[in-house]
Design a protein that fits this description.
By secondary structure, this protein is α/β, with parallel strands linked by helices. Helices cover 31% and strands 15% of the residues. It is built from 23 helices and 20 strands. The strands form 5 sheets. An 8-stranded mixed beta sheet has the order 7-6-15-16-17-14-18-13. A 5-stranded parallel beta sheet has the order 8-3-2-12-19, with helices on one face. A 3-stranded antiparallel beta sheet has the order 9-10-11. The longest helix has 16 residues. The radius of gyration is 25 Å and the shape is globular. The chain starts with 38 loop residues before the first strand and ends in an 8-residue tail after the last helix. The relative contact order is 0.17.
């Protein structure tokens, strides 16, 4: 390790491959040569620019598998910090557009489609590290981070109606969690548990109905798409990662959003920036396999296998198989798995189809994983579609009739161009456990002035609805709109007409969208750079990195950054995950929020409690407890 650069960040109880261990800092070494990647925090490392790595001058070609955010980010860090000429980098994408799950498009015969939204926050350290360098395509001379920062300063996000019931009425959650003493103890227990004790367990294995019936769990599960059968380990990691935002969970004031959909606000500027630097994108080209030369202490990618569908489109024939031979100075950075693989779009009159057929992204990982135990276990995540699927829908209102009902619930004008719902609104008594959101409008630059784009999703896709007596999975776009209008409180007599004439809806079924939440063990996800790897890395939501949480844009960017930094031996630290879980102030604020502001009850006889409180009051601990309303000063 370079003198003076190691940053020790200890994760309590961490004991998984490639992660921090108690009392020391575990680092990844690339192929046994050069220095190790390390984590850092603070301005000293954040503002420093690394020197050109020695390996950059030796590089032949760089091959990025997939054009999702992880790959785009890896390319960005290779170009910016690794000073790799863009002309040496090629991105292969089976689909026709970049962005992966960060999508947003208008389909000619269907309408606007957003499969999902990404909730952002200020401490996505790697994400903002990258986008501070990506120029805005809206405003000359500023970065994507600049415009995002100013937008959320001028128009901060918060919800005025987070939960409804009884057809659009206020559910009176009153920004409270209402966790009883047993539920509070269960959260504390999972927070303090060792990671290995949560491996292979589901949330319902470790949490009782005291917790699962609480308002906290409804806030949590609908915001993050957790199911009770999902991983207790992932729930624990989320608690640690976002403990600083617990107080903002009820009104969603913890969240920040882009101006437009994530494709136009993030993917498009990043892709254009990379293209301007010479990076090549090859769409309709599928990477089907990677060959390796494997030894106990040395692993080298030697060949890529491609299926060129672009050639087939041009010739009208079959896809062309190709191979690319690789040497140690050629890099392969591969996205493994996919949450949006085999997604299917329905339309106003057609349900979305559940596609359980061959899944190319998962099949690639299976072929690769079969070659070495350190390459992960994809079947842990991808073989139980009934437990990993859910469905969303994009509703576009076509005139002013439906928006008046939106405004009644969210208490804001949806045509104002400012925050509308401030995040999701959940109909707590919906049989589908339906949530919906309206972001700042227009959500697409191509929207007409009278259109509002709404994103709707349901966690329970196999349960018959309350108005439409069919499961979400079986419904057409028009029927999903009817169910949504019912929970908005639209008069039942008006629902059929409004759903048919005043809106269009595109349902999307995603078989693997919560695959990364399945209970897992150490080794199920490969390290970003496996031990001994000389010229390859795994990135995306199914690669393993320290302390961060999947189903976030930050996780994708972090894996891309770690891949670039390790493979090139960059001398700058990768920003560590925001350390709120080690900050006593954040922890005390979270305790106060979880207790709904109720002070701590000191047990024992009154005389002993008074003496103890006087001693505590005379210390900085007493000051902190009073500041966070956990213990009043004795007057």
């Amino acid at each position: 390790m370079r003198p003076g650069t190691e940053v020790r960040s200890v994760d309590p109880g961490a004991n998984m491959a490639g992660e921090h261990h108690r009392g020391r800092c575990s680092v990844h070494v690339v192929g046994g040569e050069g220095q190790a990647m390390y984590y850092s925090s603070g301005n000293y490392e954040a503002f420093a620019r690394p020197r050109r790595p020695e390996r950059t001058d030796r590089l032949g070609s760089v091959h990025l598998v997939g054009a999702g955010l992880a790959s785009l980010s890896a390319a960005g860090f290779l170009v910016r910090d690794g000073q790799v000429p863009g002309e040496k980098i090629t991105v292969y994408e089976r689909l026709r557009l970049p962005g992966g799950a960060l999508d947003g498009i208008k389909e000619p015969r269907r309408g606007f489609v957003i499969r999902g939204g990404r909730e952002l926050e200020d401490h996505m350290e790697c994400l903002w590290d990258l986008f501070r360098s990506v120029p805005s395509i809206e405003t000359e001379g500023v970065s994507v981070l600049d415009e995002f920062y100013w937008l959320n300063k001028d128009d901060p996000n918060f919800s005025l109606q987070r939960v409804t019931e009884d057809r659009g009425k206020d559910a009176h959650f009153d920004n409270l969690f209402r966790l009883d003493e047993k539920a509070q103890k269960e959260i504390t227990k999972i927070f303090l548990a060792r990671r290995e004790d949560m491996e292979g367990k589901s949330i319902e294995d470790v949490m009782s109905r005291h917790f699962l019936d609480s308002q906290f769990w409804l806030y949590w599960r609908t915001m993050f798409a957790f199911q009770e059968w999902h991983s207790a380990l992932e729930f624990k990691l989320y608690l640690h990662r976002f403990i600083h935002h617990v107080g903002g969970l009820p009104d969603l004031s913890a969240l920040k959003f882009t101006k437009y959909n994530q494709y136009e606000s993030m993917v498009l500027p990043l892709t254009r920036w990379l293209m301007d630097r010479g990076v090549t994108f090859r769409f309709h080209v599928e990477v089907t396999d990677v060959d390796f030369d494997l030894a106990p202490d040395r692993k080298v990618a030697t060949r890529l296998h491609l299926l060129d569908h672009a050639a087939a489109h041009q010739s009208g024939g079959a896809a062309v198989e190709r191979t690319i031979d690789l040497g140690e100075d050629d890099l392969v950075i591969a996205t493994i798995g996919s949450l949006t693989e085999n997604s299917d779009n329905g339309d106003q009159h057609t349900p979305a189809r559940l596609d359980t057929g061959p899944a190319p992204a998962w099949d690639l990982w299976r072929r690769v994983a079969a070659k070495d135990p350190s390459f992960g276990r994809p079947d842990v995540f991808s073989t139980d579609i009934p437990l990993t699927k859910w469905q969303s829908a994009t509703v576009t209102t076509l005139d002013r009739r439906i928006p008046e009902h939106i405004e009644r619930i969210c208490k804001r004008d949806p045509f104002s161009g400012k925050v509308v719902t401030g995040g999701i609104v959940t109909a707590r008594d919906s049989a589908w456990l339906m949530s919906w959101t309206v972001n700042r409008q227009p959500h697409f630059k191509a929207q007409s002035p009278d259109e509002i784009v709404v994103w709707v999703y349901g966690l329970f896709v196999d349960t018959p609805g309350d108005y439409v007596k069919k499961s979400l999975q079986e419904c057409t776009g028009e029927e999903i709109t009817q169910e949504w209008l019912y929970h908005l409180g639209v008069p039942e007599a008006d629902i059929p007409t409004l759903a048919a004439e005043a809106a269009s809806c595109v349902p999307v079924m995603m078989p693997y969208v919560t695959a990364f939440f399945m209970p897992r063990h150490a080794g199920d996800r490969p390290q970003v750079v496996p031990d001994g790897a000389r010229n390859f890395a795994f990135i995306g939501q199914f690669a393993e990195t320290t302390r961060d949480t999947i189903f976030t844009t930050e996780y994708s960017v972090r894996t891309g950054m770690e891949a670039a930094y390790q493979l090139l031996d960059l001398e700058r630290g990768v920003p560590e995950v925001f350390n709120s879980t080690y900050d006593v102030r954040k922890l005390l604020a979270a305790v106060s929020a979880l207790r709904d502001g109720e002070e701590l009850d000191i047990p024992g006889p009154r005389i002993l409690r008074d003496r103890l409180q006087k001693k505590v009051d005379a210390t900085e601990i007493g000051e902190l407890l009073a500041e966070f309303s956990l213990l009043s000063h004795d007057e």
